[in-house]
Design goal:
5-stranded parallel beta sheet
Length: 455
């Protein structure tokens, strides 16, 4: 702890966002960065607590006091080594993690100015790439065993990375045309530039992981016919011995996420203009990557009144995307009551995560937000959406004008049958939709289980 009085003398300083009038015209990352001097000062605020609740709250067990101290002292390489010892992809969590560690920080309890752990870890990993601290490990000793990972989202990537480092020959199968899962096809570019993903995937490939994209393996939506997936995998990659029903892989990790979005089956659901959130989010990311869509295929908010149903992060991402596409207006409704305002949640006191009202950068760009709203019916003319009939608790039904409605109500937890002992499930596919940091932690934990099993 280099400066024991820093938390008393230096206030929390966040990097903040680009000006609204600037950022809504492009899909560049909205978050800014601090100078190296400012970043070191922020790291110095870490109290090096005797009981580090940040470490307790982080699913990955990140040792924030240690790498914050190294950052403050200017030892960026040591900071990187300490950070990467628990976190395989700090460039992802440093941009999009809600920072459970910060809410559990003792300073958050003390004065609601926790250490800027998330921004600090992003600064550390970017400096590591810039200074060449990160080099591919090409001397990994192979143990002769092969593992297939189905799904290249954060859980699958974390599992593949750990297994590869342990000496297994890893092949990752991905149904989409590139790796990343929701990192690539769900989270907008203004929160996570996809070049950041490409940089990491290139490194993983250099270290020996093989990626197979546009995978034809049948990924069942809710546990139906999963045996077909394993059968197809074994047929494509049969055992050298030729034994029936056996494949070349000694173990299989299923990390297919939660592919089934929660639907809203009310009258008018079939109208043109009603879409799942990921339909517009994934398409927009693909457009930015150079993919072309016909006029009929293109989902756009340009010139439209947009209604987002669902008050979570996915709904927020829809709001930011709608603004950048040139929408006329955006309204977001949520069936649950409005969360408590302010830094403290009486129902979840420190060091637990407070379920308080969250205002994102997308909300700041302009949005009408309403709670306790139930959706009754989609209304339309000539097959196209014109409005949505809703009802607030205890009130008469009303109509919200909308030409585009985006359903952002979460995802259904996958159901899995009983698998053979050499098949493992991790990430959202095992737990249901959750945070990227939890998916990564699950991937690492599953890699250890695979290693224990095969050894």
């Amino acid at each position: 702890m280099g400066n024991p009085k820093a938390f008393l003398e230096i206030h929390r300083q966040e990097a903040g966002y680009r000006p609204i009038n600037d950022r809504i015209h492009d899909f560049g990352e909205v978050e800014q960065t601090l100078s190296t001097r400012e970043r070191k000062l922020q790291a110095s605020r870490c109290m090096d607590c005797g009981v580090p609740f940040c470490h307790w709250a982080c699913p990955l067990g990140n040792k924030a006091p240690e790498w914050n101290d190294a950052l403050y002292k200017g030892d960026w390489e040591l900071a990187y080594k300490l950070l990467s010892s628990t976190n395989p992809f700090p460039e992802f969590t440093g941009r999009i993690c809600p920072a459970l560690c910060e809410k559990a920080c003792v300073l958050n309890r003390f004065n609601h100015e926790p250490t800027t752990n998330r921004e600090d870890e992003c600064a550390i990993i970017e400096m590591a790439f810039q200074e060449g601290f990160i080099q591919p490990k090409t001397d990994i000793k192979r143990n002769g065993k092969k593992v297939a990972v189905i799904g290249a989202g954060p859980a699958g990537l974390a599992a593949a990375n750990d297994l590869n480092q342990r000496g297994y020959t890893v092949t990752v199968f991905e149904k989409n045309e590139a790796a990343g899962g929701l990192l690539r096809y769900g989270i907008p570019n203004f929160k996570l530039n996809k070049a950041v993903i490409d940089r990491r995937i290139k490194l993983l490939e250099q270290e020996g992981i093989e990626f197979k994209y546009s995978n034809p393996l049948p990924i069942p939506p809710r546990g139906e016919g999963v045996d077909a997936l394993l059968k197809a995998l074994n047929e494509q990659y049969p055992s050298p011995s030729g034994e029936a029903g056996k494949g070349v892989f000694d173990a299989v990790v299923i990390a297919t996420g939660t592919p089934t979005a929660r639907d809203l089956k009310v009258p008018g659901r079939e109208l043109k203009g009603v879409h799942f959130a990921l339909e517009i989010l994934s398409q927009q990311n693909r457009v930015l990557a150079g993919m072309e869509f016909s006029k009929d295929e293109r989902i756009t908010a340009k010139g439209k009144d947009v209604l987002v149903i669902g008050g979570g992060d996915t709904g927020s991402d829809c709001i930011g995307t709608a603004h950048r596409q040139g929408c006329k207006s955006v309204t977001q409704i949520e069936i649950m009551p409005k969360p408590a305002e302010g830094p403290e949640d009486p129902q979840n006191p420190w060091p637990n995560w407070p379920r308080t009202l969250k205002t994102t950068s997308s909300h700041e760009e302009g949005c009408i937000r309403r709670w306790n709203i139930n959706t009754l019916e989609f209304l339309g003319e000539n097959g196209k959406l014109t409005g949505v009939r809703v009802q607030e608790t205890g009130c008469e039904p009303e109509i919200i004008k909308a030409e585009l409605c985006l359903l952002a109500m979460g995802f259904l937890k996958p159901e899995h049958p009983e698998y053979p002992k050499n098949v493992f499930v991790c990430g959202d596919s095992a737990s249901g939709a959750s945070l990227v940091v939890r998916a990564m932690a699950s991937g690492k934990e599953t890699a250890k289980k695979v290693d224990d099993f095969l050894r």
